[in-house]
Amino acid sequence: MAARRLIIVMISLLVISSIAAALVPVAENGLEDDTTTTTTTPPPPPAGEVVRETVEAGGKVERIRVRVGDRLALRVRVKRPSEIAIPELGQLVAVDPAAAASFDLLPDEPSTYRVRLLDTDRTIARIQVVKRANR
User: Fold this and answer.
1) In what order do the strands lie in the sheet with 91-95?
2) Confidence bin at 28 (pLDDT 50/70/90)
3) Closest by CA position to 61, among listed 128, 124, 114, 127
4) What's the chain's average pLDDT?
5) CA triplet 119, 60, 75: central angle to 5 degrees?
6) Has this prediction a pTM greater than 0.70?
7) Contact 92, 71 (CB under 8 A)
8) Percent of the chain with pLDDT over 70
9) CA 59, CA 57: separation in Å to the nearest integer?
10) How far apart (Å, rounded) are the C-alpha atoms in residues 135 and 121?
11) Exposed site from 31, 101, 115, 119, fewest CB < 10 Å?
């Protein structure tokens, strides 16, 4: 019996609150504006190329040359487990002989970045990023 009364009270409150919400006028808060704004975005930079390079950690120090805007897909192979770092870009990847380290980089300013083998603290490659020539 008490449960029925509780259900009736709850349904009554629901009906009353729905009616009250329907009768209250909606205030204009200025969010809707009749004026339109246009934004202009700068044209995208010229699309670069995808440069794919593979470096062997035991070989000579390799030079990899890319232009600003090019995407560098770099793989580094090693003969024993280690970590490969590109400190200037904040990149660090564990690597072992069964799985090469992979880096997917999009350099946006001209510079030279070292690729280092951490266990021997040796530079195994240098990535040279040069300005893109204007066309």
Assistant:
1) 62-67, 122-130, 111-117, 82-86, 91-95
2) low
3) 124
4) 86
5) 65
6) no
7) no
8) 87
9) 6
10) 41
11) 31
Q: Can you spell out the DSSP letters for the chain?
A: -HHHHHHHHHHHHHHHHHHHHHHSPPPP-S---S-------PPPPPP--EEEEEEETTSPPEEEEEETT-EEEEEEE-SS-EEEEEGGGTEEEEEBTTB-EEEEE---S-EEEEEEETTTTEEEEEEEEEPPPP-
Domain positions in the chain are 50-130
Q: Answer yes or no: are the C-beta atoms of 127 and 72 closer than 8 Å.
A: yes
Residue 93 near residue 116, CB atoms below 8 Å:
no
What tokens does 16 get?
């009353």
- CA 59 from centroid of its chain's CA atoms: 32
Tell me which CATH code domain 50-130 carries. 2.60.40.420
